[in-house]
Design brief:
Elements: E1 39-42, H1 47-58, E2 62-67, H2 70-82, E3 86-91, H3 99-110, E4 116-119, H4 134-162, E5 165-170, H5 183-203, E6 208-215, H6 239-250, E7 261-264, H7 273-286
Parallel strand pairs: 1-2, 1-4, 2-3, 4-5, 5-6, 6-7
The structure holds NADP nicotinamide-adenine-dinucleotide phosphate (NAP).
NADP nicotinamide-adenine-dinucleotide phosphate (NAP) is lined by residues 43-49, 66-69, 72, 93-95, 120-123, 143, 170, 172, 215, 217-218, 220-223, 296.
Amino acid sequence: MNAEPSTGRTSASAEAGPAAGSGPGAAASGRPVFGPPVALVAGASSGIGAAVARRLAARGSAVALVGRREAELKEVAETIRAAGGTALPLALDLAEPGVPAEAVAATAAGLGPVGLLVCSAGAIRLAAIHETEERHWERQLRVNLTVPFLLAREVLPGMRERGRGWIVNIGSGVGSEVVPGSGGYGVSKHAVHRLTELVHEENRDLGIRAVTVAPGWVSTRLAARPADLGVSEAEVLDAEDIADTVAWLLDRPARMSVGPLVRVEPSASRAAAGDAMTRHLTRSRTKGTGPAAKETP
Ligand SMILES: NC(=O)c1ccc[n+]([C@@H]2O[C@H](COP(=O)([O-])OP(=O)(O)OC[C@H]3O[C@@H](n4cnc5c(N)ncnc54)[C@H](OP(=O)(O)O)[C@@H]3O)[C@@H](O)[C@H]2O)c1
């Protein structure tokens, strides 16, 4: 594990979530009056998680960056520090037993208690159910569902005690749509949507908000390349679009709850999540690259 001491602007003790509507944290405007929360971003080494981490840091949060690729994490941390923010890279495999708790503890030790958890770590291996290998099924369920559960379970007691906190899970459009071939990925995303709903219902009166941001096609290393499916790069979402959405959600007044499921799709129907995934699978089969059309390690 790499846990560099943080540099730059430090706000280790500053933390906030949505202020409980009538609590001391709620201003007359209904907007939170606490400082920016300490954030833990799972899956911060690239793509959506990296964009969200940079955005949270720009908004004043001290951010723990969690992922397996140490060099990439350090790069994201350097970008944040160069802009005057505070970042703590934690090179960890969250799928390993005990590691989600370790990540939360390391964040608390380095930056302060987690007030904002973003789960963007994701594993994908597309295949029809009858072609899905058990190890791929389990991997996706572990990274996409069990890790968000374990992280939430770890941070919630402190958030409940302090009466504020945010949990943002990155779901997927295919968690809401039945897309043949979405396999263990689709199932894990469907389930993480429900996990978020439960966290929301169980904690909404305690000043804690939980929301799933469920993107459609975003241009990252995890997704199909737009050119491969006859779609222009400009038509698919950018990781910054998802960072914008998260920032917008965080800025809502304490009296207002959006979600708990927020879908963000490209405008063009041919770039919509379900259609694109189906075309991607069909293309992989035609090219003979096997049933598992897409995989990230
Ligand atoms: N791109 C899309 O079209 C799209 C659409 C809908 C939803 N999503 C979701 O968005 C999220 C982010 O994906 P992305 O598109 O931004 O792709 P990405 O760049 O591949 O991001 C995935 C992140 O997950 C991390 N990760 C994977 N396994 C991990 C593990 N065992 N422990 C710690 N970190 C782990 C990766 O870091 P390391 O490799 O360094 O561990 C990486 O930072 C995922 O949950 C994905 O399902 C993406």
